[in-house]
Fold these 2 entries.
Entry 1:
Amino acid sequence: MTRPTRKLLRTLLAALATVGVLVVAGSLEGCSSAPKAPEGLYEERNRAAALAKLGDGFMAKAQYADALKYYEDALKLDSSLDDLPGVSASRASMGRAYLASGEMDAARQEFQTALEYGRYALSSRAQSVAMAGLGEIAFASGAKEEALADFEEALALAGRPLAAGAAGTGAAGVAADDKPLAVALHDRAVVKAALGRAPEAIADFEKAQALNAKARRWAELGANRYALASALAGQGRTEAALAAALGALDADKRGENARAVPLDLAAAASLSQRLGKGAEAWDYWRRCFDSGLSADDAASVRKALTALVAAAPALGKPKEGERYATLLAQLDEAQGR
């Protein structure tokens, strides 16, 4: 996702005051600090889990370099104890950080190593997480059938019972839970949707959604519902798609997933437009603009402004349309368009 410069956001915020558009926004000058070990005395495995959790927090904020530092520190603790499930989990987390930052070769190496250590640990769940990561790399590379095979294997592994003593308490909390199963279901659904197998994809999204809702995993639930909305819309089930998009918004708000909220609002706005609900769509686009600007999400800001300018005449909002058109022109200028 393209991110605007801080200078651009300051320019837009100044323009908001000039053109009279009301926005409530938090500070846009946030910065990340260098990783620090959690305070207090912990056993090494608990410290590794705490470090990994902090890394997950930075992942959620798209601060991948900081996340990687935490995962590396967790890996050192796991390796010092020969905690095989923990090593696998830390390696898989590092793979996710590399994958998110576009470093495919490094991501592949980490996921393959995570798979090996999952096998050493006799942990089918750890292997499932690693296989899902390899599948994501294949899918990102355009190898859909290969990705599907990887996700099918990840799904099979996630459904196997744990071997005695294999669960561990490593960096990512490898334990007897259903999170790997939910991940594999979601990933398989994404590939099936891309292969034109929408009904099967919808069924998988709904299964993953049920697992994550029960476990109150809000970010994962938001992702399930957002993807489900897309699949339902593609099948012409627009009302159901809108309900899924609003469900995604609810989950991401509960999980304080600020990066996803503008996307959820944009989906709700687009689907409302399809249903002829112009006033509701306008409200969602306005909220998408506000949220996108506060989250430093240039793509969502542009999408919302474009939609608001286009919708203003039919809704009898010429002044509002002019204001948003001014902001859009300033965004174009700032981005060299």
Entry 2:
Amino acid sequence: MIPPDVLRVAILWGPGVLILVVFAYGSMRLIQHWIDRSMELKRDQWEETLRVARDHLDRVLEAQKSQAGAIAHLAGSVEKRDSTEGYEHKEMRIALRAIHRDIQLMLSGSKTEI
């Protein structure tokens, strides 16, 4: 048989302990939900920041590609003309080829990093 003191303690403290356990469990679930939600918002912010940076980098690469094409076109037109100026045209052609080569190297290097 159960001693009367244990039965009395169980009757007096049982409902309070049960309420305390339910309250603690509910609080832990609420805290866990709040932490998960804040981490999800931070992750979404980082993804948006990375998307904006990626878009900006794509625009810069497209601009560089367009400039490289323009320089190649300019170098081709300089090569097709008869060189009446002599060394000035040759220097310009060499400089344009060097710039075009540097831009192409930069574009090929940046695409391998992405």
